[in-house]
Batch of 2 targets.
Target 1
Amino acid sequence: MSIGVLGELELKSHYQVVISPALQRAVGMEASLLVQGAAGLESAEALAARLPDREVADLDRLALAVHLRNAPAAPQGNEWIFLPLHPQTIRQRLFSPEEALRELAALDVEPARIVLQIAESTTLDDAELQAFVTAYRECGFRIALDDFGAGASNYDRVLALQPDIVRLAPALVRNAEQSSRAARLFPHMVSLLREAGSLALVDGIASETQARIAVDADAELLQGDWFAPQGGTLPAPDVIRTRAAQLMGTGKPSPDRTELRLRSRFMNVWNSYRDGQDLEAIVDGINDTEVTRLYVIDGQGNQIGDTALTAHALRGRGHPLSDARGACWARRQYFRNAMEQPGRVQISRPYLSLTEQRLCVTISCVVMRPGLGQVVLCMDALQG
């Protein structure tokens, strides 16, 4: 269905569902505008690039009417409708919230259902954006920051605008699928956005693997072709429920074989050290290529003696961070966790080793050592 005409151009609406994996249903739809002209079909962005500023705002105004009238029936009746805005519409202030409210009133749509999307990469200055966001938010509209992470991501802008939703650029979840380092960073980005007070929407999900990465990062909202491609209708609720159930299943994940092997190696080291063997003698029997160093920390967090290096550690003291004798690790989480739970083996999240300048995890546990009493034994293992 299409109802809008701009000159000789026909405006058409496409929608893509936004789901909540926890609620296991659609909670919104992103609207996209396609333009049919004599030369064929093109995107609204391509058309806007050829229009004067005032007509760009007219296009956004028409898009609001077209998308609202074309919107497919929503099961709950209160799903959000995400509407992208061109930067010139914001800068020129040619489309006022009062005009938008009149359009919504004519269609009996509450402004709280409308999520206005602002591109994160927009060249607008913060004052322009803040004025726009304030005016529309006071009228009941919701605000989303779009395509976050596509360029030089600006957390200051997130803090200043306090968007209801931040839509992460599709490249972020693709990178997380392809790179173990990107996968480790992805949950932290989602967590930062949530702690800033915004819902995190992961866009561009094209596979079950990417969907699981987003769910494991605790992203609240998901969108992409794996759930449903863009179109004039929304997928049936049972289709969304089935996909969400795949992601939110409670079955135990397969154990990480590398982690199991490293834990087993650590227990052998722990037993040998508890029984009185020196660290230098213990490292001679370690053949695991990931394991680089053993060291011991006292109850106050201070390293006791030197670090015992395996054959796979960086040798020598060629840089100022390599010598850990006398170091204080009291603030390291692997030390704190070991002290708080003395009967349990701890394994840290991956981090950049201060002494090796390589990505590693630390496995730690309290041990009673003859002559020293209660200390924390630590083993570092490299990560890919």
Target 2
Amino acid sequence: MDFTHIAVNGIRLHVATAGPAHAPLVVLLHGFPETALAWRRYVDPLLALGWRVAVPDQRGYGASDKPGGVRDYVLDVLADDVCALGAALGAEQFAVVGHDWGGMVAWHLAARHPEVVERLAILNAPHPASFLGYALTHPFQLARSAYVGLFQLPLVPEALLSVNGFSLLAASLTRTSKPGTFDDELLAAYRQAWQAPRAIASMLNWYRAMALARPVSTLIEAPTLILWGGQDAALEAGLADEALAYCARGKLERLPDATHWLHHEQPVRVGALLCDFLAQPATAGAAG
């Protein structure tokens, strides 16, 4: 992927773009603790389908800017980044695909700026308006989310995640996925990204800003596809059903043998599902 920096919402995002400017735009959003490289296998299939593709390192990640304040990472700001990215690329409407935190941003964007989201695809990411209530009424989910409380502490999680060459961060990928899912090359690229000044603190600030979020519970009108790996170690499958209830035109596709990292483990299957979903519009979302 070829990257450039694009000014959006008061910062610069490091973004890979590909495809003709007149084609409909799809934006792919990674989650924690990845970068745009999470989507490296999906660019060519989407280009072949006729889409223009934009894959950013989200704010605080990779080579994108890393503002220092917790309030710089609230959901409103993160969603506005993506809205501004679409505008910078000349698209009045665009499709959004998001995994994990990228999915949370995509949910919030579709609720906050429904006029810009033409289609929405979510991979193992709860709807922001349902997550807290679900966790509080499902003890096992609350236990699975205990790390979020740890991440609220100052300095301690930065130290823990950075020790021994970011071994805990790497383990958060390799120990919760199928064997061999993350190869040495990708892990090395992630470690390089994690080494950047303020990178770990910025990534953690996404979690620290959760208490400041104002989730929007408006029904999402854009056609929506939810893909859910059934062996997710952090998120219960019931969160997918909760999220589907916020979709006026939603479809839930479960992948029982996949973990949280379904887009890495089953790129052919996930790619086919995404391409089938995104192939339905012919020209909607084309750049103006």
